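Figure-free illustration: sequence to structure, shown twice.
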Amino acid sequence: MRKKPRKTVSQTAMRKYVLSMRLTPIKHGESLLEAVSCILSDHGFQRGGRSARRFIEDHSDLIQSGQPQHLKPNQTVCAPKAPRHTQALLPSTPPVSSDAFLKSYEWRRLRMSALKLHGARCQCCGITPAHGAVMNVDHIKPRKLFPELALSLENLQVLCGECNHGKGNWDMTDWRTEKVST
């Protein structure tokens, strides 16, 4: 007998589902799988001893539709629970002035966009990883002083570790030869 193929649910679809169903955003450290399964449970779907992943796969059509058709008017959804473990944490954006910001999904995604746009060459001295340099994506205007620009591609440049360290967060020199305009 053939097994039914499993329906996988993307992280993006689960995030959108949680954001559309809850009044509070996903907390840093909260498991995305648990957040989705908690919402389903609160709306009458029985988990029945299944793992969170299996429970979500069984309701993948509902989650991927993005429509809260299973909700009754004025029905509330569960509050975030404390995580039981630290695997599968949902990256959310911590305060931009914190070190945790640099580990957030949003920052890492934007960092990759900057590296693709500008290449892996220091825009100050020209060194590359082929010469042993470690590349950093630098905020031209510092996060601490301009938090609204922390996730702006127009405020990013690629510098080697030495140039970035020398620049610090007090110097706002833009070393890019071509400016980004989006």
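We now fold a second protein in the same way, so the two outputs can be compared directly.
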Amino acid sequence: MKRFAMSAILAALLAAASAAATSIGRRLNVAQTRRAPARSPPRPLDRPRLGADPGYTGFEDLAGKIVFNRLHVMGSLGKAVDTVRTQEHRELVASGDETLKGSKSLWRYSQENVPERRRDEFDALRRKAFKVGRAWAIKESLRRLWHYVYPASGWQCWKRGYFWATHSRLEPIRTAAETVRRHIDNILTSYQHPVTDAMSEGLNSKMQKIKSMACGFGNLENVKAAIYFHCGGLGLYPC
């Protein structure tokens, strides 16, 4: 009886192992059939696609064609102004002076965009010998880089603004000016190539909003469908 019981148990174990191996094999076969087919490597562009000139590749003088976006340059300077304001406000509050309280948004405006209802308040703050007032004035002077047409005029504006920033004894402004100096060549190329990435930034912002509203997508095809639906310019009005 014991031998019979042991042989029955052994047979049951062998049957279970065989069934498990069969199930695993089926899963592997299904996974292999569902696997996407291998894509062939992209074909290199032939010469007619690159242009009529046999020597044209489109990559000559690439460094001279790069343009740094004005938005990011002024954003760096704006953050430096806000850092100066934060540090100075902390020092004034420690001595019992709250003059700069509630003025955070004012220093973020450009000169022509200050709201009319707060213009007198802002002019009064600027007349006082605050560090943030100097930092804001330096930022505004460097903003004029994009007001010129000729590169020589832009270089003169940059030299004046850079000298002022590096001799202002305001460390955040000096650091931001050094950052701009490292990329000034490709900032001033905007005179030859007046392009921005404003359209792509706006489109990217809209796509991120679509993803946020959907709270996630199950697959990439649904993402594409939603982007085409909202950004594809579909005419959904009845005829």
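Summary for the second example: The radius of gyration is 32 Å.
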